[in-house]
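Renewal narrative, Specific Aim 1. Our central claim is that a sequence can be written position by position from structural information alone. The example that follows is taken directly from our test logs and has not been curated for this report. It begins with the structure tokens describing the chain, in the order in which they were read.
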């Protein structure tokens, strides 16, 4: 048998009585909520305002009260929803419009906030709170404009300044926080940038912008593999995130080029390694730490290619990027030593030793100071035109050549100035041979002593002619000079026995 619908009469008085009970109950919940709000127990206030809304969902003031509570709990997005619901229920609810504007402002939506405050001012032109909040919205818009201009000009300090001021007005705006964090990273203030990004990720682990900033910090700290992981994760959350895509591409390219350069260097192909490091330096000028290492690596290749001045310049570039980069100071100091710029080498070694007081660094500084001291006395190796590892036979051959070259008799027809200069050089050649041909004197000279000042050259009694005669055996030896013989320019005459 088919079911029969039966109309049951509804008791209007019952429904009205029941509605009155719900409204009284809702008012009771609201009063309890107000009491907890006064005690600053906002969580409990929220619970009771919610009960009031559940009992009577068409009352605008209940939503307004819960919005105020959510604002105190810094839950501005939820507070915005409640404020908007309040003004939907009652468009003349002035506090609702004011709270909606404050929520928009806290979330960084200055234009929307301004519209809400204007609505309040239409209803009450003398509302001072709305006037002040509207000025705050205008100020926020100006900071946004200045920050955008600063970012375009790569004036990241200015952007951070503007975002700090903006966040004082819009404390819940993640967009401002992300922009500040990105600029902190670009300024090399990685711990601060990481802190801002981490705070956002604690609230929203899928925030692609925060993931990108975390990756950017790691990338700029030369932790490229970890950085790529964050960039990939950001792209997974937001496939059209262009900054993350570009950073990921740069990170992979930089890592590949640097590793290729290192491998080529290990294979002793220094020209190719130098070129690869140069190409890597062109990938991302913002990556300070990695570029500092690339400059230092290129300097190492430059040393192998005997490009010492270029190597010094590369080390200097590395230090400008990272003034705590010890390896760059050490490499530059060695280049200064190799080019006999000892005072510059000492400055670098002192910087290194002040930072890392190791025995090795102390010894390097000591050696640089010794070389500086040695450089300030006569360099007898240069006088003879030989290296510091010259053998005894090489020293003799060098003396023979230089002594004959500068002997006064060979230049007797020259001008008085030339004769004086050659006589001086002849004496220096004799001094050099006296020191370097004597093992004990040579050792003392190599250890930094200036033997011309400590009596090893017999003071003013030193006679280069005596050394010459002793070396060549005088008139009883292999040959002699005869200034009276007609032997061409300089009256230089060999008489063989």
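The sequence written for that structure reads:
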């Amino acid at each position: 048998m088919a079911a029969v619908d039966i109309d049951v009469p509804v008791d209007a008085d019952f429904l009205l009585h029941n509605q009155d009970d719900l409204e009284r109950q809702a008012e009771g919940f609201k009063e309890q909520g107000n009491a907890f709000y006064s005690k600053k127990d906002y969580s409990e206030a929220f619970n009771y305002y919610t009960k009031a809304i559940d009992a009577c969902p068409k009352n605008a003031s209940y939503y307004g009260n819960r919005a105020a509570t959510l604002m105190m709990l810094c839950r501005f997005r939820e507070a915005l929803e409640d404020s908007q619901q309040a003004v939907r229920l009652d468009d003349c609810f002035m506090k609702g419009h004011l709270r909606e504007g404050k929520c928009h402002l806290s979330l960084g939506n200055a234009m929307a906030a301004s519209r809400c405050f204007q609505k309040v001012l239409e209803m009450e032109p003398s509302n001072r709170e709305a006037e002040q909040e509207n000025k705050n919205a205008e100020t926020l818009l100006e900071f946004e404009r200045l920050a955008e201009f600063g970012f375009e000009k790569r004036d990241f300090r200015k952007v951070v300044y503007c975002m700090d001021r903006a966040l004082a007005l819009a404390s819940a705006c993640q967009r401002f926080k992300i922009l500040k964090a990105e600029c902190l990273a670009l300024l090399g203030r990685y711990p601060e940038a990481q802190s801002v990004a981490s705070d956002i990720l604690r609230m929203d682990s899928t925030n692609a912008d925060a993931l990108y900033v975390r990756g950017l910090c790691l990338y700029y700290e030369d932790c490229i593999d970890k950085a790529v992981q964050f960039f990939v994760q950001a792209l997974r959350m937001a496939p059209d995130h262009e900054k993350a895509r570009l950073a990921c591409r740069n990170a992979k390219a930089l890592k590949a080029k640097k590793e290729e350069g290192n491998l080529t260097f290990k294979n002793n192909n220094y020209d190719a390694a130098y070129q690869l490091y140069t190409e890597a330096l062109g990938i991302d000028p913002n990556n300070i730490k990695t570029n500092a290492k690339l400059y230092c690596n290129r300097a190492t290749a430059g040393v192998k290619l005997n490009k010492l001045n270029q190597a010094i310049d590369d080390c200097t570039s590395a230090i400008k990027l990272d003034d705590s980069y010890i390896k760059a100071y050490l490499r530059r100091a060695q280049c200064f030593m190799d080019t006999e710029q000892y005072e510059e080498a000492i400055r670098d070694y002192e910087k290194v030793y002040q930072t890392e007081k190791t025995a090795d660094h102390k010894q390097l500084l000591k050696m640089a100071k010794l070389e500086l001291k040695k450089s300030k006395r006569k360099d007898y190796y240069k006088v003879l035109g030989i290296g510091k590892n010259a053998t005894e036979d090489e020293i003799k051959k060098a003396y023979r050549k230089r002594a004959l070259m500068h002997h006064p008799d060979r230049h007797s027809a020259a001008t008085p100035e030339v004769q004086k200069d050659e006589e001086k050089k002849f004496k220096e050649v004799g001094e050099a041979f006296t020191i370097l041909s004597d093992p004990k004197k040579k050792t003392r000279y190599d250890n930094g002593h200036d033997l011309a000042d400590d009596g090893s050259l017999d003071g003013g009694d030193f006679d280069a002619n005596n050394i010459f005669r002793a070396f060549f055996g005088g008139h009883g030896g292999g040959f002699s000079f005869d200034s009276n013989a007609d032997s061409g320019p300089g009256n230089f005459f060999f008489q063989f026995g």
